[in-house]
């Protein structure tokens, strides 16, 4: 099915400038009256935000890497249903702070779960909701750490 709207994702490590670029894009789109929504992963809707809290709260350090990856994928499917698809159906531009590329970076490689596992659990998103454009902000982790003033 041909979608009416366009789907753009932003990727890059924490501190790379994604938030700054997203704010500038939001201002531009608003000033030019271009219908759009901004959203994020994990999160973007009631259930996805609840999953985000579980993932990022710091209270669940005993969570297995596989559970973490599956929760990200579950949040993503709900997010697509609640926020992304309705906006695309309306013909809006959807701009998302992170998407499945982050799962490859953080879970496939950093957690050493492998590309095949991440592809399998994200197959729905990859097959039905591939972005029209992904913008990757390339900054070394060392420089990003300095930009964040050494904060985690």
Describe this structure in words.
The protein has 152 residues and is of the alpha/beta class. The chain has one domain: Rossmann fold, CATH 3.40.50. It is built from 7 helices and 4 strands. A 4-stranded parallel β-sheet has the order 2-3-1-4, with helices on both faces.
CATH architecture: 3-Layer(aba) Sandwich
N to C succession of SSEs = EHEHHEHHHEH
CATH superfamily: P-loop containing nucleotide triphosphate hydrolases
Which structural category do the helix and sheet elements fall into? alpha/beta
Averaged pLDDT, please? 93
Shape annotation: globular
Number of domains: 1
Radius of gyration: 16 Å
Total E-strand runs: 4
User: Major beta sheet, specifics?
Assistant: 4 strands, parallel
Query: How much strand content do the residues show?
Result: 5-15%
Q: What's the oligomerization state?
A: single chain
């Amino acid at each position: 099915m041909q979608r009416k709207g366009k789907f753009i994702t932003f990727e890059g490590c924490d501190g790379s400038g994604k938030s700054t670029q997203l704010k500038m894009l939001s201002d531009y789109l608003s000033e030019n009256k271009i219908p759009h929504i901004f959203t994020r992963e994990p999160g973007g809707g009631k259930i996805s935000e609840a999953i985000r809290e579980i993932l990022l709260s710091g209270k669940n350090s005993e969570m297995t890497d596989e559970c973490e990856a599956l929760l990200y994928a579950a949040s993503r499917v709900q997010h697509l249903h609640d926020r992304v698809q309705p906006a695309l159906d309306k013909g809006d531009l959807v701009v998302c702070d992170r998407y499945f590329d982050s799962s490859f970076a953080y879970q496939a490689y950093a957690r050493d779960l492998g590309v095949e596992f991440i592809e399998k659990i994200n197959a729905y998103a990859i097959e039905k909701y591939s972005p029209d454009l992904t913008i990757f902000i390339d900054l070394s982790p060392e420089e990003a750490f300095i930009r964040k003033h050494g904060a985690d």
